[in-house]
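Recap slide: Nitroreductase, sequence and predicted structure.
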Amino acid sequence: MDVYEAVMSRRAVRGFTDEPVPRKVLERVLSAAARSPSGGNLQPWRTYVLSGPPLAELKKRTAERVAAEDRGDEREYPMYPPELSGPYRERRAEAAERRYAALGIPRDDPRARHRAVAANWDCFGAPAALFCYLDRRMGPAQWADVGMYLQTVMVLLRAEGLHSCTQMAWSVYRRTVAEVVSPPEGLILFCGMSIGHEDVGVPYARTERAPLAQTVTFLDD
């Protein structure tokens, strides 16, 4: 698989089989991803990879909180700006509508939408998950480094025939994640990432991207 194919075939997969992901594959991916750009070579990411009993325990503990209608932990960073304006608001709304429509969930069925969201904390059935932390003292530039690192991980997973889904939703139950992975003091959980083989029986809608002219300006004459 060449780089273009890996990038174009990457998407947020929300349905996985239980086929295990070999540790040696994950080690190969994460070793190569360490070459991601990093200003000053800080490499601000700290990654935890869970599978088997530790991941099952995390899913169990989180499911108990969800079942108890626990609304989660106080957010440590905003997922989106509080006043999201156009065109960003429209893009987000369209992506959500496409996803729920593919699942057959109507707008006026909040319970079904809640169940779809809750699937995040089962990692959509994935047998492996990654949790990415960074030092709380880091600034926007280092958060950008982490984004580039995660993108590299996802593209390399595609090269291995695997799929993924990044999930800032895990920050909602960050304390439960910390109970299982025991991160050192001073780290903040950025996101989780479900990893595995796609369950092709789960319907999905591929989101569109804005035309190049909306996001790129060429100045060449």
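The chain is about 40% helix and 15% strand.
Helices lie at 3-9, 23-33, 52-67, 88-102, 110-118, 140-159, 174-181, 212-215.
(End of recap.)
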